[in-house]
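Much of what follows relies on a compact textual record of a protein's fold. With that in mind, consider the following protein and its fold in token form.
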Amino acid sequence: MRYRALIAAFLALCMGVLTACSDVPSANGDTPLTYDQIRNTGLAGSCPQISSVRRGEIAIENGQTYQIAGLCLEPTSYFVKEEPANKRREAEFVAGKSLTRYTSSLDQVRGELSAASDGSLVFKEKDGMDFQAVTVLLPGGEEVPFLFTIKGLIAKTQAGLSSVTSSTDFVGEYRVPSYRTSNFLDPKGRGLTTGYDTAVALPAGGDSEELIKESMKSFSVGTGFISLQVEKVDSVTGEIAGTFECDQPSDTDMGTAAPSEVKVQGLFYGRVETLDA
């Protein structure tokens, strides 16, 4: 009887451990995480990834309508081009640290995917959470704000492709709107569509070349360049994943300062879906 009770207690303990382990969701598993498990962990800004190495392919047929949905871009590294103190040296990119917590990823972006006449595949971004305001801190203490985005992206692959594979690269340009909106007011109350044209009680010489940029605000739209490098393809689910690298201008403080060149590297995830005609 003593051994029977001991065995029963041991089996109950094993079942309890197995049950507890099975109830804990995993970030890489099929069980979704709860809000409390995600809150304050940074996982909300992480893109899904294909867990195992997949080297399948997704065929893109002419006449059929496709889209890339759920496109997510998660930055992992930031670089800003700086002019060296020694004019004989060329400008180089300096690694920076993001000051933006957990909200730097783009998500739920979608757009049309089609076959072009030259045999390449073309992705045209349509909508989604396609921009995030990010600030990068450089080693010298300078803070560089910029609008991380892929608005209006038109990206093409190499010619002669009829499917998306693990060696497919989407390369193209996109729009980079101003970091500040037209309704933004600076500390002097000056803005583009609201506020003053010049600072209140501006001294004589307010129209000088040095101050004209501060007073005359502008909303400029720059151009970015991105490369999406597909590394994993699941032909069953239509999922694709890989890395990306983009170059784009930073904020100009509505025309006050010259933009810096910012390079962003990271991971991306998306799903290739067929749309009904």
Q: What stands out?
A: The radius of gyration is 25 Å. The domain at 181-218 is CATH 3.30.2050.10 (photosynthetic oxygen evolving center fold). Residues 15-29 have pLDDT under 50 and may be disordered.
